[in-house]
Amino acid sequence: MMSRTPLTRRTLLTALAGAGVATLAGCEPARTATAEPAVAVPDPLLVEVDGGMTVLRGTNRRTVPHALATADGSALWASAAAGADTTLARIDTGTGRGSVPITLPGRWLPQAVSTDGTTVALTPDAHGATDRPAGRTASPVLVVDSTGIRHRLRLRGNHVPEAFSADHTGLFVLEWLPAAAPDRYRVRVVDLATGAPGPLSTRNKTPVPPGAEEEMRGDGRQAVLAPDRRVLYTLYTHQADHRHTRDLVSGRPGNVHAFVHTLNLAERWAYCVDLPHPFGEAAAAGHAMAISPDGTRLLVVDVASGALAEVSTEELTVRRTAVLAAGPGGTGHAVAGRDRLFVGAGPTVRAVDLATLRAVDTWPVREPATGLVLSPDGRRLHVGQPAAVSWHDTTSGAELGRVPVPGLVGLGGLAAPA
């Protein structure tokens, strides 16, 4: 199901253990039992660990168990059980300071956060939006900002919040069908003023006709947010016999194995960019996607076959394709800089020149990669690995440093500067 991705979708989403969430918890100097000198991480990182999110900054690490990060990594929304109720606070990842906790009646977990980081949707049982939920016929949702509860929703059916509209008046949700025994889902938008869910528009901004909403059965592999935070791109694979809205409207047959679902958060329309063969044929985990820093192109790779596609975000078409050497399989990761795309799979990182889409270098890393994050200046590539993070020179691939991180699941992205 949905993979954990660098601050472009959602992180680990469950309750914050303990009563206090006013500051980042669990400050731990990164020292070994033999008191060897601590190694300083050169860039502040958000690291997903078992049960929570850790901020690595210099030689220190601070953990908020089970928190949801904002898109830019500047804050964490964290909830905590308080008797029969829940407290919720917004924590600054640069200073560690938190807002005054808000008390919410009942038990709630953060599920989706607005792209500006100011508003959060909470549900009783948060998880990845495309992870199949248990059957249910009603879905309670709270929408909260720093002033308190803004909306109380009880949606008929089986809904999971995914993202907010850019103007905060709509909440995009995945509606799972059938509600009591879900096996597929469709993207809808809830009008927060009325609480009523409805269909999205097509790319030409016309309403989707009844019966023409796309229903997905495959894997939502990864999502990335455009740099301007107006568009959310999600990579879907294994969509055998899938029919897009445009096919349903026109009556054309559909048989799509992989595509990029484009969701415009400002204008509330969706469009799917089909990916060519062999995308979607191999395991979903081997697919990865990255967006260029200027937001003009998406790079999609399948590490098993070596297939690489460049998608124009303006034209919403596949502009170029290339074939890299087939990798060892396993889980793929990707991040794009100004001139290079970095692809991690197994104990290998590959550098791809974006002008030619050709691999220009291959570096070994000590263990299989679990995530990639570029430094703000593009000079260092941080590589998550089981129980460790290493960082490498982006020109030579040389390892510049390494710190142990027990329980590491993946890299969440860059945290705010101090």
Describe the structure.
By secondary structure, this protein is mainly beta. It contains one helix and 33 strands. Strands 1-4-3-2-33 form a five-stranded antiparallel sheet, with no helix packed on it. The two termini are 35 Å apart.
Low-confidence stretches: 1-35, 243-253
Total E-strand runs: 33
- Average per-residue pLDDT, rounded, comes to 87
User: Into which percent range does the helicity of residues fall?
Assistant: under 10%
Gyration radius over CA: 21 Å
Gross morphology: globular
- Tell me the β content: over 45%
Number of helices: 1
Please give the alpha-carbon distance between the first and last residues. Answer: 35 Å
Main pleated-sheet profile? 5 strands, antiparallel
Q: Which strands sit side by side, in order, in the main sheet?
A: 1-4-3-2-33
